[in-house]
Fold:
Amino acid sequence: MTEELKLKTEQLAELQKKLYAFNYASSSIYLDGATVAPRDTEEGRGEALGILSEYTYELATSKETIELLDYLKEHKDELTPHQAREVELLLRDNDYMKNIPQDEYVAYQKILSKADYVWHRAKEENDYESFKPVLKDIFDYNIRFAKYYKPDEEPYNTQLNMFERGLTMDQCDKFFATLREHIVPLIKKIGEVPQVDDSPLYGDFPIEKQKELTKYLMNYMGIDPHHCVCGETEHPFTLEFTKDDVRITTHYFENNVASSMYSVIHEGGHALYELGGADEHKYTVVAGGVSMGIHESQSRFFENIIGRSEAFTGAILPKFKEMFPEQFADITPRRFYEMINKAQPSLIRTEADELTYALHVMVRYEIEKKMFAGELTVDDIPAEWNKLYKEYLGVDVPNDREGCLQDSHWSGGSIGYFPSYAIGSAYGAQMLAKMREDVDVEAVCASGTLKPISDWLSERIYQYASMYDPKELFEKVCGAPFDPTYYTDYLEKKYSDIYNL
Ligand code: ZN
Structure:
């Protein structure tokens, strides 16, 4: 390596450390706002975030940065594979950012910083009209940015790519059609047989006890409490500063024990992915999970495939009996498993069972797609939402709070994210089939720790962070291309057994 190249690689490392620091600061402000900050304090955070985003934009798109990255790209054969990947990822970001005028980028960041608050209020007050102008701005900016970035591509394809590189509307349409073909008849059959009584899950569950349950579950998952803690927010999420500092959050409902429990397991799955990255990625853009599809494959793997399996629910039932004897003293392992997996069309995505979940995602996907195609405006969203819920899930939406205002994604600018949940769930089913070749999954679930499962995932997924694109990583893990029939087979087998179909 020449002296010049050596100097450039040092500059590359320095650039990424600076980006890391800006991200760290923005994430801290976000975390503070979502957790402990008082209610009417968003203005100051918005100002600070706006300024930080200006610096980030300048750093990522400056002449020096572009020259540096171009130089390194030309010398990519002399770089380590890691450095070459750093340059590749930085150039991708740069490509996106440099096509967006700085004033628009900064204006958009400012909108996002107040959008969360506006959405919260609108949801609380069931007042879609007050959220509508902000939502319009967010959609408009995203559509414009997608067009700036890839003028010849369908804007919604560009948007999907931001969360799952390589994903297109065409693939989503086919994928969702396959799911509907299998899921809709199953739901219909379930509607014709006696429903599971899951009332013991809805009783009196003191928050302090639920916090104890959170600790128990995180420990069962093998999450190191010195590197990951759980906070409380309106909507659960995972946030990573480094692989050594990951935060998850949950929301406790006093009358519903399963809600927080499965949030913790879901976010715990995200956390394990982040905690499992190799040290060499630290302070580089390679750190962190590669895509939302792969991320959701990990969270939903733990939440559903493991967390809602008969082996796992059976293994944790004794803890439930000990903590909540009034509700669970007489419950058999089979009954507990059935309660946890009760399938019934409902209104709220995050509370939906594993079977009907994908239909909630499809509603959002259809709306986003139509918004990007100019076939819908923000004025139409509530009616379209309610219409699709009736069509896909057969339920009547009584108000916007339980309808189109329920999710935080749009207010956070995450348009195109939702399909990742369904794709990720399907990835997970195929990963399970592969995992079974090496791991006795049921025996591990019953053993008191899920560590052998996360070790398997760590070796094949976590350690690589963003070294490989999602498709490449998936095929390395599974040894085959993605095939959604693993998922539909899994669902059919599971629910036919539970409901004796
Ligand atoms: Zn998630």
In short: The first helix runs from residue 3 to 34. The longest strand covers residues 245-250. Residues 313 and 337 are 6 Å apart (CA to CA). The chain has 21 helices and three strands.
